[in-house]
Here is the input.
Amino acid sequence: MISKSHYISDGETEERQLYNIKSALDIGIKCIQFRFKNAENQQRLHTAEKVKFLCDEYHCDLIINDHIDIALDLDANGVHLGLSDTSIAIARKLMPNKIIGGTANTLQHLIQRNREGCDYIGLGPYRFTVTKRKLHPILGIENYKILLSDCVRMQLSTPIIAIGGIQLDDIEELLRFGVYGIAYSSLINNSNDKKLTALTINNLLYGHI
Here is the structure.
């Protein structure tokens, strides 16, 4: 089953990445998406190896962002691919029994990702976020409503994970319009009470604490 709650790692250094991920694991988060955009390949792999060890220790799913080679090397639970990354078809051949997610920003992307057979689609950004460079056009709630309505009309059934600057107050409305789950980073990183924030997210997504 695809998690409804994805914590996306953030940090300019290995130390900050590991600190944020360990903090997320300590408060009970069960799906980590490892994203380390600005790192050199060897540093990214080295950090990912440590993250895999932590996720195994905490019995947490690990999804590698963009880099299918790292996902394969570490036998991660899955990979999340941007529109210009490795194709979903190739990823499925290489990782037949793993979680494969794909990014989308438009209806055309949603149609494409459904056709490709993603396990989930990361749709965004919902609003501006400082944790990702080179953002696609910001969607906002009105575009989410339109796109999710189009998905129902066109019978596009792949679960949609909302991403991009999402706050606690956004979650109920997004779920009401048909979003399956959310991905977040700053929502936890910047919280004064990370445990309470994680419990609130879980309660909103799953209906219990």
